[in-house]
C-alpha cells in the first residue's frame, strides 16, 4: 500500500514523539512492503517563529493533499505566559481541526495490568477498564465568540452548539457502541445548568431511539470526573462536548498510567488526523524523556484507518511487550526508566521481528532518575 502522510511536528516534545512514530511506521513499511511518503508542515509556535502565523495556508494544503496527518503537539511557555499575545500556537491546532472539519476526536482509554503496581489507583479498580471518549472537536466554547473589553477588565467566551453538530458525532458514537461488548453510551454534560448541554441531551435522547441495542445514560460532568476515578469500569463509550472531553480525557489518562499514553484519532469529512492527547510538555523538550506511546498508538490508529489492521495490531503488541518487560519512560517509573528513543527503538525492533529473542535486557541502558 502507498500512502501520503503529513507530519505536523509542532513544539516542545512534539517533534521527538513524532520521530519515534515515524521510526515505527518505517519498520512497518519495510516489514510489510508498504510505502509511506512523509511531508512535513509547520504549525504552532514553530510556525509563528518562521512565518508569523500558527497555521500557514501551505500546512492546510499539505494536509488536504495527504491520506492522513500525524500531529505532535503545539504550545510554548512564552505565549502561555503572555495573556495579551495576539498570535498563539494553539490557534494552529484549533485552526487545522476546523479546516479539516475534524468534528470527532476518538480517545480510547486502555489500562495495562503490568503497570498497575506503579499506579496511584487501586489495581482492583483498574481491572477490566475499557472505554472510549468521543469528544466533539470543532464546536463549543473553544470556537465561540471571544470578547475582552477595552479596559481589559471584562472578558467572555461563548459556548455555542447547533443540532447538526451534535447529531453527527452522536451517530458516530452510537454506531461505534453497537460494535462493542457493553454497547453503552454515556452522555457527559452539564444539563442542569447549561443551555448547550440541554440541547445535547435532547438531541442525544432522540438519536438514542434509533439505536435500540445500545444502552444510554446521562451524567453531569462534575460527577463523571469523580466516577472516572472511583468506578471507571462502568463506562463504555463516553460522548461529550469539546471542553468537557478535553478535561475528562486528561483525567482518564491516569487510568492508563500517564498522560503520555493516550492516543487519538480526529475524524470528520476529510483527511483524518492522528494525535496523542497530551500537549507540548515543554519541561521535557529535548531531553528524550517523554513518553512516546500516545503518539505511537496514534500511528497505530492511523494504520487501522488505512485498513492495515494486522500492522496496527503488531504495534499494539510491541507496546504491550515493552510495558510487560518494564521498558518504560520516566512518567511511568521515575526510579527505573529508559529514554524515549530506546522505547521507540524497541518497539521498532519488535515490529521488524527482531524481538522478543535477540534483545538482552542487560544490554539496554537503564537511566536512573538522578541522571536527569
Ligand atoms: N494538542 C495539543 O497540541 C495540546 C497543546 N497543549 C499546550 O501544551 C503546553 C503545555 O501544556 P500543559 O498544560 O503543561 O499540558 P501537557 O500535556 O503538555 O503536559 C502536562 C503534564 O503531563 C505530563 N505529560 C504530558 N505529555 C507527556 C508525555 N508524552 N510523557 C510524559 N509525561 C507527559 C507531564 O507531567 C506534563 O507536565 C501549553 O502550551 C498548552 O497550550 C496542551 C494540550 C494539548
Ligand atoms: C490545546 C488545546 C486547543 C486543546 C487540547 O488541550 C486538546 O486538544 O487536548
Ligand atoms: Mg487537552
TrEMBL record:
The record marks 142, 190 as: Important for catalysis. Substrate binds at residues 97, 107, 135, 222. GO terms for molecular function: 3-isopropylmalate dehydrogenase activity; magnesium ion binding; NAD binding. Keywords: Amino-acid biosynthesis, Branched-chain amino acid biosynthesis, Cytoplasm, Leucine biosynthesis, Magnesium, Manganese, Metal-binding, NAD, Oxidoreductase. Its EC number is 1.1.1.85. PROSITE patterns: IDH_IMDH. It is an enzyme of class 1 (oxidoreductase). GO terms for cellular component: cytosol. Pathway: Amino-acid biosynthesis; L-leucine biosynthesis; L-leucine from 3-methyl-2-oxobutanoate: step 3/4. It catalyses: (2R,3S)-3-isopropylmalate + NAD(+) = 4-methyl-2-oxopentanoate + CO2 + NADH. Residues 4-347 form the Isopropylmalate dehydrogenase-like domain. SMART domains: Iso_dh. It comes from the Bacteria. Binds 1 Mg(2+) or Mn(2+) ion per subunit. Belongs to the isocitrate and isopropylmalate dehydrogenases family. LeuB type 1 subfamily. Homodimer. Catalyzes the oxidation of 3-carboxy-2-hydroxy-4-methylpentanoate (3-isopropylmalate) to 3-carboxy-4-methyl-2-oxopentanoate. The product decarboxylates to 4-methyl-2 oxopentanoate. This is 3-isopropylmalate dehydrogenase. It comes from Lacibacter sediminis. The gene is leuB.
Amino acid at each position: 500500500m502507498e500512502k501520503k502522510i503529513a507530519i505536523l511536528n509542532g513544539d516542545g516534545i512534539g517533534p521527538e514523539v513524532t520521530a519515534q512514530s515515524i521510526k515505527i511506521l518505517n519498520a512497518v513499511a519495510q516489514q510489510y512492503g508498504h510505502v509511506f511518503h512523509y511531508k512535513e508542515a509547520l504549525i504552532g509556535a514553530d510556525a509563528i517563529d518562521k512565518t508569523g502565523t500558527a497555521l500557514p495556508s501551505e500546512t492546510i494544503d499539505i494536509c488536504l493533499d495527504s491520506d492522513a496527518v500525524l500531529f505532535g503537539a503545539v504550545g510554548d511557555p512564552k505565549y502561555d505566559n503572555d495573556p495579551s499575545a495576539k498570535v498563539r500556537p494553539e490557534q494552529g491546532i484549533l485552526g487545522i481541526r476546523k479546516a479539516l472539519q475534524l468534528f470527532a476526536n476518538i480517545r480510547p482509554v486502555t489500562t495495562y495490568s503490568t503497570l498497575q503496581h506503579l499506579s496511584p489507583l487501586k489495581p482492583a479498580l483498574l481491572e477490566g477498564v475499557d472505554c472510549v471518549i468521543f469528544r466533539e472537536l470543532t464546536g463549543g466554547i473553544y470556537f465561540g465568540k471571544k470578547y475582552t473589553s477595552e479596559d481589559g477588565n471584562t472578558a467572555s467566551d461563548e459556548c455555542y452548539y447547533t443540532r447538526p453538530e451534535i447529531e453527527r458525532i452522536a451517530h458516530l458514537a452510537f454506531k461505534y457502541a453497537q460494535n462493542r461488548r457493553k454497547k453503552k453510551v454515556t452522555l457527559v454534560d452539564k444539563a442542569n445548568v447549561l443551555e448547550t448541554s440541554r440541547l445535547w441531551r435532547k438531541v442525544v435522547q432522540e438519536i438514542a431511539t434509533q439505536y435500540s441495542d445500545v444502552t444510554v445514560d446521562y451524567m453531569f460532568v462534575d460527577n463523571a470526573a469523580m466516577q472516572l476515578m472511583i468506578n471507571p469500569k462502568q463506562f463504555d463509550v463516553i460522548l461529550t462536548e469539546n471542553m468537557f472531553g478535553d478535561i475528562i480525557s486528561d483525567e482518564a489518562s491516569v487510568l492508563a498510567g500517564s498522560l503520555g499514553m493516550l492516543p487519538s484519532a480526529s475524524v470528520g469529512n476529510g483527511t483524518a488526523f492522528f494525535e496523542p492527547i497530551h500537549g507540548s510538555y515543554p519541561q521535557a523538550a529535548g531531553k528524550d524523556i517523554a513518553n512516546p506511546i500516545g503518539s505511537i498508538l496514534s500511528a497505530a490508529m492511523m494504520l487501522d484507518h488505512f485498513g492495515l489492521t494486522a500492522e496496527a495490531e503488531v504495534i499494539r503488541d510491541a507496546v504491550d511487550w515493552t510495558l510487560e518487560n518494564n521498558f518504560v519512560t520516566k512518567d511511568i517509573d521515575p526510579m527505573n526508566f529508559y529514554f524515549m528513543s530506546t522505547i521507540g527503538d524497541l518497539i521498532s525492533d519488535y515490529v521488524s521481528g527482531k524481538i522478543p529473542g535477540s534483545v538482552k535486557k542487560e544490554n539496554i541502558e537503564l537511566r536512573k532518575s538522578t541522571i536527569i
